[in-house]
Amino acid sequence: MAESSVKDITSTFRRNLHIDGIGLITCPAARYNRSPIVLVENKLGVESWCVRFLLPYVHNKLLSTRKQWLNRDEPTDITCTLLLLSPDFTTAWNVRKELILSGTLNPIKDLHLGKLVLTKFPKSPETWIHRRWVLQQLIQETSLPSFVTKGNLGTIPTERTLWLIQEEMKVCGEAAGRYPSNYNAWSHRIWVLQHVAKLDVKILLDELSSTQHWASLLVSDHSGFHCRQFLLKSLISQTVIDSSVLEQNPLRSKPALLLPKDEEAAASTEEPRINLPHLLEEAEFSTDLVISCGMLSTSSIIYMVGFLTPWGTLSDLHLIPAGPQLSQAMNKQGHSQETNAGSGPSSRLLGLGVERRCTDQVLPTSRDAGPASQ
Amino acid sequence: MKLYSLSVLYKGDPKVVLLKAAYDVSSFSFFQRSSVQEFMTFTSQLIVERSAKGTRSSVKEQEYLCHVYVRNDSLAGVAIADNEYPSRVAFTLLEKVLDEFSNQVDKMDWPVGSPATIRYTALDGHLSRYQNPREADPISKVQAELDETKIILHNTMESLLERGEKLDDLVSKSEVLGTQSKAFYKTARKQNSCCAIM
Predict the structure, then answer these.
(1) Which of A67-81, A132-146, B159-173 has the highest mean pLDDT?
(2) Distance between A314 CA and the closest CA of chain B, angstroms
């Protein structure tokens, strides 16, 4: 029975190239003589009653015949079934590494399996770790470069690299949506941006705008904000803050922020850059989140403060300390523990000039706060 | 933050009647969606049954919050959301929906209605628009005169039940839940610890 289930799974994959999700169907008992493998709307389901038999079978098969397979496809099929049921079984992923290195298994197919596994196990650490190994293999292939030089603008990613990056962003995004504050998914996203995208500025800017929607819906997703923090830090360290904007500001006491890594690139008007208005926009966005959610998301405040203060620029723009009023409002909503960490820096944040809007809107909100505040 | 379901019910005596419902189960694993939907219906009905007329409450169950508003004329609305969704917006939404519903659907149809017979189509639109509360309800409208001190907060579903009543019994006797959903409930209850396979 177990053997036929493995065959069923393999043939289902072969016949249906559009499978985009897997799942377990709660089914305590076998019905009639039907196969436990079900395909509905491009989703592969395994009935729960068969797992008891199927999993030990594939597990034993993998370990006992590891050195001598009956045919070329057997290890691929066995590991595939095994990983769909139990993705953190490292040995199975390692067998697949061996298959990739020997050329038997196409790395893109392997990435596809990982993507399916993540639809059911969005956190699975071994899946993410293996995925990074495969991506590393793909970008190290010396016959195909992942970046090409383009005129005097430095290097840009090739189409294939772009495709890989886009795929990874999609996978990370979906996994982040399936599990709250999915640190594994978000840190994988950061890894891809560092090692596959090589911190390309245009890609980072695109990422910043595409995660904005996410951030507004997943307000307490700390890992998501950590990723945005990384994006902003990378962008700041790579481009110049528009010095003309800074000069107009009479409060500026420090010299222009960070050095351009590539002076030619900075001079070129085509080069995307981040500048002061961008940062203010980001600050407004976070404050917006803080106000409109009616509940104060510590992560969004601390995130903004965490990345702004080390750079020193914006604390110079600190004007009226409207902080105390916001802190009061925060305490009223019962977030006293969290705000002890946030109240000091948040006053500097408010000094950006959005404090009036904050107090106008946060204070009336806090008055309506529930019994906890009274 | 997420809004999972929005339903309009009638608190009849003794039975609660579901009039119309909208669901968003897209974030759940594909094969669990129908069970999740059935459970949301079951939960909405149970909560309205155990809430008094003219009250607003929020019932917490794991990472979900069920907001319910039962009007004095027995029309009730339930919004099931996650922990992040601002409760004030949920209650404003419920108020708006019930208002609209009572204007569009004749009062006589309430005690005997069902989702198939009731003609009210705006629920799906409201559910999808209100997924992002900031777009749906700008700050000024959200600060409606809602006296939040009067919202009853229950920490679990169990606190709605009477002494001696068990949720397990209610689940197994329910007509709303199919056999697969009941089996799903049983296995989920049994496995409190993290099990890699399931």
Answers:
(1) B159-173
(2) 27
Q: Of B110, B107, B105, nearest to B11 (Cα)? A: B110
Residue listed under structure tokens 């640190």:
A183
Q: Taking CB atoms and an 8 Å limit, are A371 and B148 in contact across chains?
A: yes
Residues A93-126: tens digit of each pLDDT: 998 898 888 888 888 888 988 998 888 888 899 9
ipTM of the modeled complex: 0.72
pTM equals 0.71
The verdict on a CB contact (< 8 Å) between B143 and A177 is no
Do residues B48 and B15 lie in contact, with contact meaning Cβ atoms separated by under 8 Å? no
Whether the CB of B142 is below 8 Å from some CB of chain A: the reply is yes
Nearest residue to B19 (alpha-carbon basis) of B80, B85, B107: B107
Q: Contact, A217 vs B128, CB < 8 A?
A: no
- Name B193's bridge partners: none
Question: Judging by beta carbons within 10 Å of its beta carbon (0-12, 13-18, 19+), is residue A280 exposed, middle or buried?
Answer: middle
Write the CA distances from A329 to A50, A240, A244, A288, A353, integer angstroms.
Answer: 55, 37, 37, 15, 18
Confidence label for B20 from pLDDT (cuts 50, 70 and 90): very high
Looking at every residue in chain A, the average pLDDT score rounds to 67
Chain B nearest-CA distance from A292, in A, is 6
